[in-house]
Amino acid sequence: MTSTETPLSSPAEPADGPVGQGVTAVADRRRWIALAIVMTAAFMDLVDVTIVNIAIPSIQRDAGASTSQIQWITAGYALAFAAGLITGGRLGDIHGRKRLFLLGIAGFTIASALCGFAANPEMLVASRILQGAMAALMVPQVLSIVHATFPAHERGKVFGLFGAIVGLGAVSGPLLGALLTEWNLFGLEWRPIFLINLPVGVAALILGRRFISESKAPKALKLDLVGVALVTLGMLMLIYPLTRGRELDWPLWGYASMAGSFVVFAALVAYEKRKTARDGSPLVELSLFKVKSFAAGIAVQTVFGVALGIFFLVWTLYMQFGLGWSPLRAGLTGVPFSIAVSAAAGMSVQLLVPRIGRKVLQAGALIMALGVLLYIWESDRYGMSIASWQMALPLVVMGAGMGFIVAPLTDAVLSEVPREHSGSASGLINTVQQMGNALGLGLVSVLFFGQISDHLRPAQVGPAFANAFQYALGWVAAVLAVIFLLMFALPKRPAQHVEGASETAETGAGERKPEPELVG
């Protein structure tokens, strides 16, 4: 524990039995409650990213939103979220991760209320942008708090739980959105999809103040305002054209903006190098990329984000527009996928990674690719008559593969990162995930809509969407093959066990714990 981290329990707290054992028991209970709180916040964000898509027809009908406003309701959140993630992570390092987490979740809850009570589409758009900005303060602190609270040998178990939450959040959003919209609670139409965050956010705020311990970088840092401006500008120049490109028919300025974003990022790197040499307080800690596991994990996270961005959107379009299914049926169809992700995530970190290391992640990429190919085959074989139960097998295979990736990958990226830079590292992880997803969404315009004619008769719509779905999934399988190759750059064995062993060795002889098995 660094000098700036406060203990998880105080001597004044009651203890059962010997004082040392009592304090340890209280500390253990408090940190697991803290984990539940930050995981709930992460789940809220994951759900909120996808829950709106299902409710768009209801919003358009009830609020009278134009097509452009509907685009901004979804894109505004993504843009504000992606642009602020690195800054949010660094602010946590400087001012305290607990403080920024509580600020973020309070702002997220207020923004959710503003969305739910929006009087017009303009207010809803502005509230969604605020919601995304608050999520950018909240989300990077989740992994940072875990990194600072749990010792290295326990983080594998924790990140297994985090992977399960990711799997549940990925599919729960559309399902929850479909249920809340169809139920039309109190005649509120789409508004409950935002208002449901209020009791959750208030509870997380109250419990977080009590159970989450404060931590920050051990040396004083200053916010790099020039770095903030450059990273925000670069992210907006890259993601805005990707988000709006298809609707605007891919204008020339969009390509120029995306190309220019790489110039801005190059300027950011040059400036951050000078900033590091001058006062040691850069926004982006470039030394993190000297950690092999971090650099390799960031590359995998980015490309994996591309695959997920493509799959989830074309999957939704295929079921609702191609097959003509209701939002509720489409949401329920994804339940086997969610269960498989959650189960595989826990199994991978708890049982498999300690024994066979990165081979678990590589097996996950191959298993997920197999599930994608199986889905293509079933879609082609059954055509428009395909049923939800027939999709269960490929979805379970895909979910198992994803579960083997998401939980161990997060641990692999963060396990060797110095604690004082965990906020910056967490912000980078979430940022590249969002960049990958945005790139995947942009590629949907080419890989999916590029296969569909603009002039289709009603009878041709279903088969055209099915064919486009199969074509896009072929590219998803190819991307997963690239991920499999990139994973060779990851450490061969679980880094958290290596670090845990070293921590164990540093403890006193009387406190020595059994060293974990190191298997290559």
TrEMBL record:
It is found in: Cell membrane. Pfam families: MFS_1. Its main location: membrane. Keywords: Antibiotic resistance, Cell membrane, Membrane, Transmembrane, Transmembrane helix, Transport. InterPro entries: EmrB-like, MFS, MFS_dom, MFS_trans_sf. Residues 34-493 form the Major facilitator superfamily (MFS) profile domain. SUPFAM superfamilies: MFS general substrate transporter. Residues 509-520 have a biased composition (Basic and acidic residues). Residues 1-21, 499-520 are annotated as: Disordered. It is a multi-pass membrane protein. Gene3D superfamilies: MFS general substrate transporter like domains (1.20.1250.20), Multidrug resistance protein D (1.20.1720.10). The chain crosses the membrane at residues 32-56, 68-88, 100-119, 125-146, 158-180, 192-208, 220-240, 252-272, 293-318, 330-353, 360-377, 389-414, 435-452, 472-490. NCBIfam families: efflux_EmrB. This is MFS transporter. It comes from Streptomyces dengpaensis. The lineage of its organism: Bacteria, Bacillati, Actinomycetota, Actinomycetes, Kitasatosporales.
